[in-house]
What we know:
The structure holds two protein chains of two kinds. Chain A is mostly helical. Chain A has one domain: MetI-like fold (Orthogonal Bundle), CATH 1.10.3720. Chain A is 75% helix and 1% strand. Chain A has twelve helices and two strands; from the N terminus they run H-E-E-H-H-H-H-H-H-H-H-H-H-H. Chain A has helices spanning 3-36, 56-62, 65-96, 103-115, 118-129, 135-142, 155-180, 184-192, 197-224, 229-234, 246-255, 260-303, and strands spanning 39-40, 51-52. The termini of chain A are far apart. The relative contact order of chain A is 0.13. Chain B is 70% helix and 1% strand. Chain B is built from 14 helices and two strands, in the order H-H-H-H-H-H-E-H-E-H-H-H-H-H-H-H. In chain B, strands 1-2 form a two-stranded antiparallel ribbon. The model of chain B has no long low-confidence stretch (mean pLDDT 79). Chains A and B meet through helix 1, helix 3, helix 4, helix 5 and helix 7 of A and helix 1, helix 4, helix 5, helix 6 and helix 8 of B.
Amino acid sequence: MTAQTFNRMTPYMFLIPAAVTMGIALLYPLGYMIYGSFRDWDPSQNISETEFVGLKNYITLFFDPAFHESLSVTLIFAFTVVVAEMLIGVGLALLLDRNIRGISVLRTLFILPMMIAPVVVGLMWRYMYHPTVGTFNRTLKSLGFEGIDWLGQHALLSVIIADIWQWTPFILILSLAALQSLPASALEAARIDGATTWQQIWHIKLPLMMPVLVVTALLRLIDAFKVLEVILVMTEGGPGLSTEIVALRISRTATEFRELGTAAAMSNYLLLLLLFLTMAMFAISRIQEARAARLARQIEEESG
Amino acid sequence: MTFERQNPAFYALLAVLIFMSVGPVLLMFVNSFKLDVDIIGGTTGLLFLPTIQNYETALCDILWYELDHLDFCSLKFGGALINSLIIALISTGLTLVIGCMAAYALVRFRFFGRDTVSLTTLMVRMVPPAVLLVPVFGLWNNEFCIGKTTLVGAWIRDIFGGRGDVCLAGTHSGIIIIYVAMNLPFVIWILQSFIVQVPRSLEEAARVDGAGPFQVFFRIVLPLIKPGLAAAAIFTFRIAWNEYLLASALSDRNTKTVPILIVNNMSEFNVEWGVIMATGMLLAIPPIIFTLFASRQIITGMTAGAVKG
Lengths: 304, 309
């Protein structure tokens, strides 16, 4: 091998390990799943022994009320969580964006919930929601109120609260980073022109932060579809199907009902949904970036 | 740098926020030192006799002394902890090495298919573990096997025992490879943004001095992107350490990780809160340590992942 061919091969040699790993453990499985979703597939069978059933799995799911239920639970969960976290997170970021002592300590404490295992988060909240020994009901009762059946009647709400606790800091920290990288000249100019705090937030800070906020929200949305362990530990999808998100239903269909074909079709539906969201994220962030750049230039010109 | 004075309401808000984010973790910490009697009986606050009995029960299979309160060690937590450590450490190491090389190639070399690779990397990031569950379960159990009659298969069966074909499922490597693949897209993405900042002239200078591409990479680039590596390492470790679903599908009795153990003990009707909180605390210790000592790297990783995404 001459030095020149060696140089030409170098990038590929650097890439090969990653490509092989991702090929074996991500892309091939995904293809395998798409193939399997057209088959009547039992966990004990080798896939070549299974029977081709066409779109049967997809059609069954399409008319399956239980799947509709878990799809709507997933959508309600994901969108509620993202909206609530965005409102609280961005709001807090605007409040905390001040020159105060110890802000780094604060940030350290805020990322703690995100780093802890989802299984452990589920465990903590299941304890706190416990009808008799749980922290919340004990506090309520000592104050003279009735206890609330958190994980029974209000299961979905309780799960949403736990997720908000865990992930609002993510949005808070990203918004803080975005706020601190805003052009100081624009804010200075606004202050000199006599803009009130609200006007500054509404007309300058929020529009300039928009690109980051959109990406953050969509990242969070995609992640919200991945949540599984917290809900599994807290409610196991119950009571009934009230908190059974699609991810949980996939795992139950595969392991409990032993219908791998249906589970694969369900995974494909979920994947399509996420693919759509990711595409939307690309498109929207491109548009937002262009708009923010235009706005920044405009403000720069006006102030300068 | 001067600090502005804030009004008291602001500090009150801060206190509430800190209490809310740390409170549940502290609660678990305190409860892991209580006996079940105290937890259920409702001894409020800090008025209880702390005991490490829960931790002893949890770790009974790797303790060197006999426990008085326990006749039989049913919870094999120690073994699971070791499995978790092996899997998380090896998969973090592998992901970093492989991801680093790939990111470097993507940034530094112009070659055919670069954009496609970048785009694929990004797309793969959205795949939830639950989606991988079905195919990975099928593949690892049925396809990625070495027949027991073949040379290598027979050899493995002779040494390690067991029946049937030798499959990826139920081994440490089976879980490790899926974690590496799952984390690679994110690691490549983060490291790319760090490698871009390494000045090209530095590499060229080294090349003029006669260093080969691998030398340039290991001697010049790697030391310069240490902060990025730290961020990537923490994120990879966190996922490999915390993941439950795929591990539960792929592990057998001997390769169980800690999250599986916790979930299995939770779903039983009568939850032993003290012990389960002790196990939860043990699982939470590494992430807590990372948070306290490397929060800057974590935040860098988070912002790089989102802002440049």
